[in-house]
Amino acid sequence: MIELSDLTKRYGAKTAVEGLTFSVRPGVVTGFLGPNGAGKSTTMRMMLGLDHPTDGEVRIDGRRYAELRDPLTFIGALLEARSVHPGRTAYHHLQCLAQSNGIPTRRIDEVLDLVGLTAVARKRPKGFSLGMGQRLGIASAMLGDPRILMFDEPVNGLDPEGIHWIRNLMKRLAAEGRTVFVSSHLMSEMALTAEHLVVIGRGRLLADTSMARFIEENARTSVRVRSPEPERLREALEGAGLAPARRPDGGFEVEGGDTARVGELAAEHRVTLHELSVERASLEEAFMRLTHGTVEYQAHDGGDDELG
Questions:
Q1: Residue 240 CB-density burial (10 A; 0-12 exposed, 13-18 middle, 19+ buried)
Q2: Cβ neighbourhood burial of 33 (10 Å; 0-12, 13-18, 19+)
Q3: Structural domains of the chain, with CATH
Q4: Roughly what angle, to the nearest 10 degrees, separates helices 160-175 and 130-142?
Q5: Which pLDDT score, from 0 to 100, does residue 188 have?
Q6: Where is pLDDT greater, at 158 or 94?
Q7: Is residue 253 within 8 Å of 245, Cβ to Cβ?
Q8: In angstroms, rounded to a whole number, what is the distance separating the alpha carbons of residues 190 and 260?
Q9: Where is the ABC transporter domain (predicted)?
């Protein structure tokens, strides 16, 4: 488990992280989200002792990172996959990490096989593609067989097969009872991977909740309904105080509606339905709604009033 208590980091007059308190628990994949400049990287660096907090503290299984004797056996992390000595082969990079953390050398071959790099183990990473570099970074994180894993943008550079692989790997690690903490800007991928979310904006905690509740609380859900008698359907919906919006396919979207209620209204008015379904909001929509006011740099659409 990772526990943050009133974690704060200031750089001169700028506060990068302010009063963060949350826990990352074992058994689920926890997603870490926030706009650029929100303080995610600073927070993860403080978790690993790479930056020192101005106030507050981080506990890794009850201890500060500096108190861990062989840290890779407690927590493995992928923050910057390219942080590899260019003169060492992939095998020797892992060997140096293993020797400095008291990890048996047999583990090197195991993690190279796990990430699919056995065939290039004796090659230097400077010639690796971005995806291969990510796999080596994941191998480094897994080297000590830790109970806690942290991944920052783990799917960068991976092809579809690689993305599918890392997604399933994170789920399997969580199912084994490990703590898995992952940060990513790919909302579609996070929606398929994470069960719990921690969201920050401008260094402050905005949400610490389940994926399902986060979407429910921060994005709209509507009912999609279509009938060969659209005008009768519209009249029935409006008569019940609902506000149907016409869709391009001739059907209606009823924001905030309920499928049972819409279906019962149609039956009551003897209106035939060809479609009745829930239009669920996406994680991206929920994230954008929650964090809109915390985005540090916002692009504009380039309208005439701005280009003047």
A1: middle
A2: buried
A3: 2-211 (3.40.50.300), 220-280 (3.30.70.100)
A4: 10
A5: 84
A6: 94
A7: yes
A8: 30
A9: 2-227
- pLDDT at residue 144 above 90? yes
Q: What is the mean pLDDT of residues 226-254?
A: 92
Axis-axis angle for helices 90-100, 106-115 (nearest 10)? 130
Q: What is the pTM of this model?
A: 0.79
141 touches 77 (CB < 8 A):
yes
* Length of the chain counted residue by residue: 308
Which token pair is 214? Answer: 């986060």
CA distance 147 to 241: 53
pLDDT of 297 above 90 = no
**pLDDT(92) > 50:** yes
Q: Which residues face 200 on adjacent strands? A: 205
Burial of 246 (0-12, 13-18, 19+ CB in 10 A): exposed
CA distance 168 to 182: 13
